[in-house]
Amino acid sequence: MAETPQEPGHETLSNLLQESRRFPPPADLAADANVRADAYETAAADRLGFWEEQAGRLQWERPWDNVLEWEPPFAKWFTGGTLNAAVNCVDRHVEAGSGDKVAYHWEGEPGDTRTITYAQLKDMVCQAANALLELGVTKGDRVAIYMPMIPETVVAMLACARIGAPHMVVFGGFSVDALGSRIDDSDAKVVITADGGYRRGKPSALKASVDAAVQDRPGVRHVLVVRRTGQDVEWTEGRDVWWHDAVERQSTSHEAEAHDAEHPLYIMYTSGTTAKPKGILHTTGGYLAQVSYTHWAVFDLKPETDVFWTAADIGWVTGHSYIVYGPLSNGATSVMYEGTPDTPHKGRFWEIVQKYGVTIAYMAPTAIRTFMKWGEDVPAQYDLSSLRVLGSVGEPINPEAYTWYRKNIGGDRTPVVDTWWQTETGAIMVSPLPGVTEGKPGAAMRPIPGITADVVDDQARSVPDGGGGFIVVRDPWPAMLRGIWGDPERYKETYWSRFEGLYFPGDGAKRDADGDIWLLGRVDDVMLVSGHNISTTEVESALVSHPKVAEAAVTGATDPVTGQAIVAFVILRGEVGEGGEGLVKELRDHVGTSLGPIAKPRQIMVVPELPKTRSGKIMRRLLRDVAENRSLGDVSTLTDSSVMDIIAEKLPGAK
Ligand code: ATP
Ligand code: MG
């Protein structure tokens, strides 16, 4: 065991929250489940054999020689094998006779819709691939994609994959600087964008941001622009090209080359909640095998009958793996929605579920808490009986949000799968299986078959049932990141230096008395109050369990007496109003009763909004800046930077 740095307060993590509600898998789902309980043992008995079998879900041009080549911490999966990701996602389904099957029911925010079949998608991808080649893109070149949530975004990604040009999708809500620094870091040659997209009822501009970002970046040779809103755009002759000119006149056939299993598929930058964003590199064969398997296993996907909807942005890894590569590799029918959940009204998501008969829905806890805030009468107006599995991703789901989701969206019948994973893991790692695992509100439960995640203490010892520590992964997995783009040292340092030979994701976790895993949020977010470790997640969940609270964010602020003091920001449920002094006391007492007096926040502030990333993660480091009266750190990855002004305005003393 290597020397690990002793960060005070990280030796143990608290284990305060008690949650005893249990939801067994529904009998009919269990009887017909894709994955049975024995999958865990089968996979454990022959892990590489198990993943080989999953790779067999894909169409390979040439089979692999070795399942895994592991030179820690660098892994190569399915070496010697060749395949094309776009062919796996599109062509092979058309060839198998499913060309008329719907790949996407697309819903624009203003209410316009498009239905894209697999055959149409194949034609569009081939045309875009031909256009990229014409623009001089060659295998290995990086292509930036800065788009709204429209079908062309998927087409652009698959066209890149098809010709072997790694894509680098930047969330359309990011600033010029965020886009520019990612273009620099990945050295992208072409940017694919749109004039704009619809958000919150009006067209937002994208092309203008690209213009500003590429102005001083001559490395970008072309900007390919989809017309989505029809708004006016500036035009640079020679550099800018309309999609409808360059793509739509191309041939719908394109002979796809099979790429090496380890050929780079994409770079995706992390959210930057804890540090400067890292360019996470994913490759082709292993990534596709694991996203395909997890999409099928964790959601119990029945490709013939299910309508699957990940309500997330493609500019987040969840969109890559579970709007694009997972569902398409499985030949599924998905819903794709362009806009926000409250445009033009707060029932928009449920209207979409009802309209398309969505059977599986996957979203972030932040969205669920927003729906809680709006109240249960909103979903009650829609027929949600088509739903059979619900998923959550992005943050620990508070037990209260879980049960609200299950009851008000899932009709008290659907399992909720709380899926833990990261940009770096590429695909789901720890999650219940809906036909096998009992549901416990707030718990991600067990590593999926084939994954060896564990909870260890600061000496890398596996903790006993009832213990707390850090989540780690023991063995390489197919969809794991292959590194940080251009920075192998940072890769080793960030993920492989804390515990020798173990992958360290940076999250705290606990194992309950049954041996099931609960995620406790970032290790960086753990607070040390009077010598006790308290996780922000647990205090937040305690606050959210109060009937008047919809959403809470907690941070530790330096305190002369206690070392760190707990400062909480809360959003109240719709019907409650402003709050006031009485409510603050009520909430402090409520936390005291739920978790113990030590966890009582020093300060509770009622706010209208919280600072969030594109995936809805709360940026606690910014709240810490507010709580400690400091000027704000990097805000470039906030979805809406005006939120910080609104919060500051509400808080006398805060800048
Ligand atoms: P950065 O690393 O730059 O701070 P990020 O970690 O926010 O960015 P992502 O890769 O999107 O970017 O997020 C992964 C993180 O999200 C995990 O490490 C974990 O903290 C959290 N997370 C995701 N799913 C869950 C879940 N089901 N339960 C608890 N935490 C989750
Ligand atoms: Mg991270």
TrEMBL record:
**Residues where CoA binds:** R199, R200, G201, K202, T318, S530
| Single GO cellular component term | cytosol
Task: Provide the GO biological process annotations.
Answer: acetyl-CoA biosynthetic process from acetate
Query: Which taxonomic lineage does the organism of this UniProt entry have?
Result: Bacteria, Bacillati, Actinomycetota, Actinomycetes, Streptosporangiales
Enzyme type, top EC level: ligase
Q: Which residues form the Acetyl-coenzyme A synthetase N-terminal domain?
A: 38-89
User: To which protein family does this belong?
Assistant: Belongs to the ATP-dependent AMP-binding enzyme family.
CDD domains linked: ACS
Residues the record lists as binding Mg(2+):
V544, H546, V549
Q: Tell me what reaction this enzyme catalyses.
A: acetate + ATP + CoA = acetyl-CoA + AMP + diphosphate
Q: Which domain of life is it from?
A: Bacteria
**Record's SUPFAM superfamilies?**
Acetyl-CoA synthetase-like
Q: What is its EC number?
A: 6.2.1.1
Protein name as catalogued: Acetyl-coenzyme A synthetase
Enumerate the InterPro entries for this protein.
Answer: Ac_CoA_lig (IPR011904), ACAS_N (IPR032387), AMP-bd_C (IPR025110), AMP-bd_C_sf (IPR045851), AMP-dep_synth/lig_dom (IPR000873), ANL_N_sf (IPR042099)
Asked if the Swiss-Prot or TrEMBL record annotates the protein with the keyword Secreted, the reply is no
**Which residues are listed for ATP binding in this entry?**
G394, E395, P396, D418, T419, W420, W421, Q422, T423, D507, R522
Please describe what this protein does: Catalyzes the conversion of acetate into acetyl-CoA (AcCoA), an essential intermediate at the junction of anabolic and catabolic pathways. AcsA undergoes a two-step reaction. In the first half reaction, AcsA combines acetate with ATP to form acetyl-adenylate (AcAMP) intermediate. In the second half reaction, it can then transfer the acetyl group from AcAMP to the sulfhydryl group of CoA, forming the product AcCoA.
Whose protein is this, by species?
A: Spinactinospora alkalitolerans
**AMP-dependent synthetase/ligase domain sequence ranges:** 96-485
**Modification note:** Acetylated. Deacetylation by the SIR2-homolog deacetylase activates the enzyme.
